[in-house]
Each structure stands twice: as structure tokens, then as C-alpha cells.
Design brief:
Strand order of the largest sheet: 4-3-8-7-5-6
Shape: globular
Order of helices and strands: HEEHEHHEHHEHEHEHEHHHHE
Amino acid sequence: MVPSSAMALQGLPVIALGGIEVVTLGRKALVEHMVAAINDYRNGVQSRPSVIADANGHAISLRATNSSYRADLEAADLVHADGGFLVTLSRLTPTPIPERSATTDLIHDAAAAASEHGFSFYLLGATEEVNRACAETLVRKYPGLTIAGRQHGFVQDLDRVAEDIRAANPDVLWVGMGKPLEQRVSLQLRDRTSVPWIVTCGGCFNFVVGAYRRAPAWMQRANLEWLHRLLSDPRKLFWRYAITSPHALLLVLPDLLRAWKRPGPRRA
């Protein structure tokens, strides 16, 4: 069965990795697609909000072991390669992903574009302190950006949050609650709001404010940021990487073999 995410990509190039249809676009192309999609939605060309999900080794492993998450991920409208692991493996196929589109980078790319085009953000996730600091940091770095609203991630009443988002009427909603919760919440808000782009972003707000630190540039270029994160917080992340990374690799291998047998670009 073709995942619903692939059907919604409308001709964007994709590659199957671990059962997930991942778009083979770099950061610049993703942001250009965001700008076009927001304009189309605001002009009545696009009829409903889009959920933009991210894929990494954790997502691939979780998809295979959590049926609810699998259904939620397949209901997304676009999935991009947050994990360098996927970018590296895709280079073994005829349809490589040009670069990692980490949400920690993508939020800055999107904020720069939003500043230029007059778009607004709503930030949902993290603690109140981090959420507030993230909003302040983004506005300071990108003066043309409007933070239409924000809410910490410890949500008790999603209906109230949806009402607040509708009143704020943002162009992009960032949902940073971690997997699998953020995927479910994003889909629920897609049905209850009119936000053109709803983006899952994990701990991205913490990175924006410096609470979590990025890997050195050379590790990012080599798609080894996962190793930096593991070394920075081994107690929290050791078992996640020890279990999910080998599992994800086993799940991706059949797709890599199929890609070699069927060369050429795949389109949804």
C-alpha cells in the first residue's frame, strides 16, 4: 500500500527508507515549497493545512514497533530527512537526498523566509521558559518575523489550544513535543485549525535558545551529529541509539536493495 504521505506530495521526488516516503529535497528547496504552499493556501488554491513530519533512525524504528505512530506518520503530507543517517544511506541509491534538513536548521531557514514574506509562526512545545525564550530569540534574529502566538508543550486542553491557534491565525505552527506525541497532536490540529504548514520539530526550541548544543560543523557535515548528542548526554540517549539505530538500519536495507534494482527517480 502506498502511504498517504506519498500521495499528498504532488509530484515531489521521494525515496522509500524503512517504509517511509522521504522527500529528496534540500533545505532551500523545502523552504521554497513552504513559501509556495502558504501562498497557495492563503489564495484558496490549497484546500487544507499540511503536516510536515521529520524522519530519522528513531522514527523508522518507532514506525515498525508502534502501529499508532505508523498510522500518524503515514497521514502526514510530507516527510523530510531530519536524520543524517538517512542522507548517508540514500547516497547508496540512484536517488540520494542532497542534504540533511534538521529541524534545528530548518526553523532558522523558515524564519528567514517568513521575515522576508511577512509570514507568522506559532510555537507549541517545550517548557514555558524555553518556549518564551525561543520566541524572543527568533524575533531578535529575524526582525520581520511575527510570533502570532505560543504555548508550552504540557497541554491539558487541546481544544483550548486549537482555539488559541485559530485566533492567532499563523502561517506556520511548530509542534515540539517529541515522538510519537507531536505527530498525533499535529494531525489533530490539522483538523481543527487553518494553519497552512504544521511542522513537527522535537527538541528544536531548546536548540534555538542554546539549552541543547549543536555538534561542531565538521560533525554536522559528516552526518555525525547523533554521535555528538550521544556523547553529550549518554545516560539519556545511549539506549535509544543502541537499540533504534541498528533496528532502523535493518529496516532500511530492503529499500536500498530495491532502489538498486529499480534505478531512476521515483515520484509520488
